[in-house]
Amino acid sequence: MSATPKIEPMGAKVPEPRQNDPDTLARQIVEKLTYSIGKHPEQARKYDWLRATTLVVRDRIIDHWFASTDRVRESKDKRVYYLSMEFLIGRLLRDAINNLQLTEPVREALKRYNVELDMVELLEPDAALGNGGLGRLAACFMESMASTGVPGVGYGIRYVHGFFRQEIADGAQVELPETWLMHGNPWEFERRDSSYEIGFGGKVITQSEPGKPQRHVWRPSERVLAVAFDTPIVGWRGSQVNTLRLWSAQAVDPILLDAFNDGDHIGALVESNKAEAITRVLYPADSHQAGQELRLRQEYFFSAASLQDIIRRHLSENESLDNLADKVAIQLNDTHPAVSVAELMRLLVDVHGYVWSKAWTITRATFGYTNHTLLPEALEHWPISLFERLLPRQMQIIYQINADVIREAAQDKGFNDQQIAAISLIDEGHGRRVRMGQLAFVGSHAVNGVSALHTELMKETVFNNLHELYPDRIQNKTNGVTPRRWLMECNPGLTGLLKEAIGPAFLDDTEKLADADKLADDSAFRDRFTAVKRENKARLADIISDRLAITLNPDAIFDIQVKRIHEYKRQFLNIIEAIALYNQIRAHPEKNWTPRVKIFAGKAAPSYVQAKEIIHLANDVARVVNSDPAVRDLLKIVFIPNYNVSLAEIIMPAADLSEQISTAGLEASGTGNMKFALNGALTIGTLDGANVEMLEHVGEDNIFIFGLKADEVAQRRREAHSGRSIIDRTPLLREALDAISSGVFAPDNPARYHTLVSNLYNNDWWMICADFEAYWNAQRSLDALFLNQSEWQSKAIHNTARMGWFSSDRSIREYSKDIWQAGPGQRP
Ligand code: AZC
Ligand code: PLP
Asked: How far is the CA of 692 from the centre of ligand 2 (A)?
């Protein structure tokens, strides 16, 4: 038989690059409508145009995708694998078109058929495969890896139902299922050939032969199939296209024929349902560990599938796994994939025959771990009984890792029992649990926090003893946001203005935004900057008017707090301040009040009672304030339902003031804070997370910092601080709380907020009372500043100009250099 001829792919190797002029694009869009979608253009509906446009853009991405894949394979460069339970992507069409520089030609092409690109883009569902900051960071990092030329693959879960849709009914949050796949997903490619069996349960068989080390063989009692779905991620200017590979669970035997033939039609599908449940829905809790068996199954499922895939690819290009860490960097996005440490050890020792110590060296050199929170309730730990039942061999491995670590700590560092208990992978105190943070830490060569302050606090608190044991391991990597989505695409008005004023260099290097700094003193530029902001505010006001029938004055301060609802993020403090302001406006109508619109948005975890009460309160207060003729246009309060990435893209450019007011020490970094400031909002915030570094970059005149610092919060907590005495001596605060307690905002149920308020009197854990006065004063100085528009706008311009460092390209370059040793310039 003759050798198979080599087949060149289309696209990457075609001599002529595809034409990108409107004529060609228009023709191809109609071709897709006709031959891929089967619709006559005259009968095409809006979704058909979206699909056809997506397919035409996708063809161009595929050309770049093949070229990127070939380049990495041929260069044998080290690859980076980003393992994340969450990717909060949002829409992809605008991002892809922008990064391929096709926005204008595609717009033009669609116009030929009287179709508006903006309208088509709005039809794309948000891929909401994440909860909030952590998932959105993973999405920014995927885009930045492609943009900076890092050969990266993201691994995650293809949830059928992403983050729930939020509606507000009678002021309260209602959760509805999200159905992003309803119209199919033209971005993804199902890879049936890349599927792996994943085991659960069963037992471990130990084989001993004289003179040989023991061998352990795991015999799972249950198996499911992980099937890959790939989405291409295009970098800026299309230079590189990386892959996001999401796993979907399927039954190995889709139908139990014996049961079916016996007439048990439901029973025949039991296996299938059980398997598919693993990837059916995203857990909607961001700062609270879910603690459910299904969650642990999800974590192991995607970790194990990703590792098998990584090893298969490595062995197809290398002789053995000896050099795994030279060719592969795996980043654990929080502890959700931390079981990977035990699983890689299992694969190396049990399957590939490595001795323990060699396997451990390879494992540790391969993994890096990013921590995203210090909140104790968010730190993952699993009951040993559950872990052992589901993953018996991995449990044995964790015991062995633990024994090694404890021996090292005792022998080399002389750790005492208390220190040993702190570093142990097993928590003996709470009914014996596996601590995933400790596992991720010891199994990684680099452990990072996401802002300078957070990293320092990691060393002092959660990982204090592990830091002592491994003093070189913790490092900082301050978060960033992609300037493509969060400036260029969401704020074309500002981008156009900046291009005209300072040239296009900032498009490729965000730090070049600094060239705009001097324009803060240029009154003509300031006017144009203000006009752009005014337009963005008017657009948001229109949306609010459409959706909520609330009319806003676009000349008021747009004061915005959008993020997950959480006690530590202190939306409650913001609402109390709004009530105090409301009371003051009513009491002193003659004063020169600066008009304000307070905008809130965000979802509460369905089981988080206090967070849901805060949403309810915001809506109750909004109803009362907005219908009170006494405050006229001076104060309006809006809660926009269903906060998601697409809504954020409209909100960020429309803000005058960004609320970043977490209790100091608790917000690991924040990324919303960066997006607002980049788009020219001033920040009112505590010295928390990346606010600290934002202060350093924008300068203290251009940001409004108030409140207790992290060490002061810790001190107050040690002193058993409570709010009562502060409330007693602060009339503004007392009157606001009295109004809440007496049912002014909830006449139907005056007791509704009893717990929320009594917590402030008795405990004030989140330092709302402690920080109230400083917050109030900072707000009033902002009121005064807003009346001096040229000064306000010049500060806003300084914010945009000085935020370049917060690009996620900078974050990724730091990870590449300090943790991964991969990417441009990092070849060993
Ligand atoms: C978040 C942090 O709360 C936020 O401060 C940070 O900016 C973001 O991660 C990205 O690093 N954490 C989460 O979203 N979720 C968890 C489980 O920490
Ligand atoms: N959710 C969405 C939809 C976002 O776009 C962002 C960041 O912009 C976040 C959550 C995280 O917000 P924060 O950093 O304020 O917690």
From this structure: 18
